[in-house]
Amino acid sequence: MSTKLIAGAAQVGVQQQSYRFKTYVLILVMIVANPLGNVLLRRGMKHVGGLAVWSPPALVHTGLTIFATASIWLGISALFAFFISYMLVLSWADYTFVQPLSSVAYGVSALFGYLILGEKVSPLRWMGIAIICAGVFIVGRTTPRTTTREMMEET
């Protein structure tokens, strides 16, 4: 083998390793940011309370209260971080890889609901989450991308 071929193969290996690392880091951001954003929105809306009257002044007052609540803004920021991470990951990894891995967020949602909101999570729900996580483990052992750019450009 020529030295250039070996160097090229080594560079491809480093690029793939970097690619996998970025993919897993952003999937981790997705797994934490999505449930965190939803929990913070829930906490903020519990603080605001329900809308009892649908008159225009009541709607304006409720809207101003919602957007003056810090946890609402933190929740929106976390969901924005999720959305950006999701778009980036989908730009370089297969959807059939990303979506199952992102389902670990169901477990994080239950954990955040329990810890932050004080919600009760039944043992049956925890068992369902464990089954989901087992499936994620299986999917996570596959390669993030099964298609190459050339194959995608041909279609």
In words, what does this structure look like?
The structure is a single chain. The protein is mainly α. 80% of the residues lie in helices and 0% in strands. The chain contains 7 helices and no strands. The protein has helices at 3-48, 56-67, 70-92, 95-102, 105-115, 123-140, 149-154. α1 packs antiparallel against α3. The mean pLDDT is 84.
- Tell me the number of strands: 0
Helical content band: over 70%
Helical stretch tally? 7
Shape: globular
**Average pLDDT:** 84
Termini gap: 34 Å
Uncertain ranges: none
Strand content: under 5%
Secondary-structure element series? HHHHHHH
> Structural class, from helix and strand content?
mainly alpha
Largest sheet descriptor: none
Which radius of gyration do the C-alpha atoms yield? 21 Å
Keywords:
about 80% helix, mainly alpha, 7 helices, about 160 residues
Give the SSE map:
Layout: H1 3-48, H2 56-67, H3 70-92, H4 95-102, H5 105-115, H6 123-140, H7 149-154
Helix pairs in contact: 1-3, 1-5, 4-6
Give a brief outline of the structure.
It is built from 7 helices and no strands.
